[in-house]
Amino acid sequence: MELIRHTLRNGIPVSEPFDGRFDLSCDILVIGLGTAGALAACAAAKKGAKVIGADESRIPGGCGTSACVWDYYFGTYGGLHQEINAEADRICRTGRYLLTTDGGKRSYSGAVKSLALERKLKEYGAECLYGCVVTWVITDDGKVSGAVLFDGERELAVSAETVIDGAEGAVCRLLGAGFSGGRVSDGRLARFSKTVGILDRGYLLGSWQFCGELGNASAEEEGSRFFRWSSERPALAENYAGRSRLYAVGREIGQREVPCVVTERVYGFNDLLRGEQPEHTLFYSFAPMDNSNPDQWDEDDDFQDWMLICSLHAAGVTAPIPGEALIPKGIRGLLVCGKHIGTGHSLCSSVRMRIDMEKCGEAAGVMAAMMHERGCDALTLLNEHYDSLREVLSSSGCYDRENDRGFCDLNKKDGRLWAHLDLPGNAMELRNALSSTYPSLGLLAVRTGNVPDAAEQLVMWLDAEDVLLRESAAVALGMCGDRRAIPVLREILSRPVTVYTYDHPDRAVHPWLWKTSFNNHIKAICLLGRLGDREALPMLHEIAEHPEHITVTGGDAETVRKNAAAAAASAIRRIGTQMTNTEA
Amino acid sequence: MNMKETELLILGASAYGLAAACRWGENCLVAEEGTSAGAEYADAMIANPISLAKTGLPVTDSLTEEFLKRGAADRDGNLHILAVGPILTKRYYESGCRILCGTRWISTEQVTGGYRVTLFHPKNGFTTVMAGKVLDTCVRPGMRCQKSLGMLLCGDDTLPLFDDGTFYLLRGAFPDERILRVRLPADADEPAGQELLDRFPAEHPERIGRAKAAGPALVFGYTFDTPLGHVSASFGDVISAVREGERAWN
């Protein structure tokens, strides 16, 4: 037995012997009782494990309570969270609490949700320590076997068979685990928001704006950005009368993305687009690709393909999340749950809806409890006992094959679920799609390999008289890395910009999804950069330096020019980097 | 990352520490547990009325004026307590001081020329700061004070204020704004306090009338019989804390 404790000192990993004196012991220690961690503690305790949960906040629920992030529009049905919501519904029915706006979104105020969580945690038998931060992680012969918590006055050493990191990677960080950063181009993450609660027609409404991001921020830069955005609208009003009056202010910041832990398997957006179905799926998440960073030309290629090239902001993706994405790579005795699981930057934006994060926590809690029951590690549990694990998760609805809806149309309902996207499956359907003012589904069909022998058809259409078909064919080919697209892509840049707008015929709930606008000009810019087309550099420089020369038809001309200039600058950098790498 | 150095280290982005942060500017480092300023009053919903009288102290008087101008205080000094946090946060941000959020104080050791302070930050772990001066404005274990938890109520402008020894009601700046508070034993956790606050309307409907709860305070509030040194929460109300901090540190 070799007990070691691990921490960071001034950012540098440090390890030293631990004397083995524990103050508390349990089967499962859950650090972070946020949206996912609270459900991990509930699920593990409900399964009979002895659970201790710890959080630096004074109440459970994370962003959903302490950051006023109440409303979530997406996610898949099913899971233990329904029992917590039933308690929350009961509290709402007392009439003692302001309710949130609820168009069937099942959202609850921080007061209601935290009370419901606290009651359920107690009912299931989890012991919770609030106001505690994790300062050390303890390993025994290399396996995580506990942690040291600091409550402001004293340190508490807690021993555990399994530790669940529901604290955005805090435990992993102390162990020196690997993290994947933000996007490849500059490390940026999705923007965070400071949310406050206001009243809208008698209901609590979360009010927010997009703030900064934290990808490469130092500790002081992060502090400065939090303070800056905590003192802007809507938290700071010119006058607090009327609609600006505050009914809640988040103590936490609503971070849409945190760095993902490098896990035994990272299931990323590219895997999803390739149609990979992992062997050990624990639950399905569902949401649009909800990364609202405005500079999409600097996003990773897979996200760019979806949002900028295919223009699919009105489509949702189902992601099958494997158990391996909850296991930090090479670390025994530790699981993760929350936004920091192994999905990578692009997919993270879709796998963060509240009820999906609650399922994530539940899955981690059940995994940990079953590891304890069977005396095995996480990988063995998945490889040898997956069927049993899936059965347990199915009993609450956390795992439900019916939730695997693939790509969906967010403007159309199919009963209570979203309707499948109808992708072209043959050359004729593809041609029709690409010739239209909504080529999105055709482009996605090419990206996902849904049309056999698409490349040769697309090459033929490069000579089509129909401008839309010719341009979309070039975009599709370019997206697949096919340099035969280059001449037509350059041709697109030489012509005035036309902005196309498509009105979706079905209009489900959300107005911001009812129209899709795109222009092939910016797509061509990005793709020529990606293809490393040096001959396009003079054109790209002209766009970057003189966007005022761009003629625009339709849409907001100023925004089109500004975006084109920024995208061109990004493409120039990208070509430059490729040239440097080639020469090296 | 090298250890940090600073002329002044303020523990807690508090009301009391504001004037010092404004004076020291970039030569001041502030270590705050949360993500905004004034939590001991704003996040805790300690909404005792403020005095609107001029003090001659520039930070205090300009802050009082700003509270009035933004409607965060009414003419009787009653506060829209949730607005206090963003206003104080803006003052801290504009002071130019350096800020660490999500940071816990671990220990302080006096050394030649100043102090070696150990903090804990989620990104960097244990962080050593060498400070010429340290201003600790936080409530620490062992201090004699009354712990309480608050809940924001709204919707009934007829509710009279009361204090039955355990529960008491404060007024906000808006006619229907109230804060219900419960006094708690030192070892009570927030869930225990929330349960007491949740039961109170059912057990005393006449005290609550038509009011509904918006949300619990996210941190405990602490009240002191008399001010205690630099402890921001011990001055009773946010402007008193700012004023005393300005007198002492300017």
Q: Which SSEs are present, and which pair or pack?
A:
The complex is a heterodimer of chains A (584) and B (250).
Chain A: E1 3-9, E2 12-17, E3 24-31, H1 35-46, E4 51-55, H2 63-66, H3 81-93, H4 110-124, E5 127-130, E6 133-140, E7 143-150, E8 155-165, H5 170-174, E9 179-180, E10 196-200, E11 203-207, H6 219-230, E12 248-249, E13 260-261, H7 269-273, E14 281-288, H8 301-309, E15 315-322, E16 334-336, H9 344-348, H10 354-374, H11 378-396, E17 407-414, E18 417-420, H12 427-434, H13 440-447, H14 454-461, H15 467-479, H16 486-494, E19 497-498, E20 500-503, E21 515-518, H17 520-530, H18 537-545, E22 552-553, H19 557-583
Helix pairs in contact in A: 1-4, 1-10, 3-4, 10-11, 12-13, 14-15, 15-16, 15-17, 16-17, 17-19, 18-19
Chain B: E1 4-11, H1 18-24, E2 28-31, H2 58-69, H3 81-95, E3 98-100, E4 104-111, E5 114-121, E6 125-136, E7 146-154, E8 167-171, E9 178-184, H4 190-203, H5 205-208, E10 212-216, E11 221-223, H6 238-249
Parallel strand pairs in B: 1-2, 1-6, 2-3
Antiparallel strand pairs in B: 4-5, 5-6, 7-9, 7-10, 7-11, 8-9
Shape of chain B: globular
Sheet of most strands of chain B: 6 strands, mixed
Number of helices of chain A: 19
Given as residue ranges, the uncertain stretches of chain B (5+ residues, pLDDT < 50) are none
Assembly form of the protein: heterodimer
Q: What is the terminal separation of chain B in angstroms?
A: 32 Å
Largest sheet of chain A: 9 strands, mixed
The most extensive interface, with participating residues per chain, is: A-B, 66 and 69 residues
Adjacency order of strands in the biggest sheet of chain B: 3-2-1-6-5-4
Percent in strands of chain B: 25-35%
- Average pLDDT value of chain B? 95
Question: Which ranges of chain A are low-confidence, i.e. pLDDT below 50, for 5 or more consecutive residues?
Answer: none
* Percent in helix of chain B: 25-40%
Helix content of chain A: 25-40%
- Spatial extent as radius of gyration of chain A: 25 Å
Principal-axis shape of chain A: globular
Count of distinct strands of chain B? 11
Radius of gyration of chain B (CA) equals 19 Å
Mean pLDDT of chain A: 94
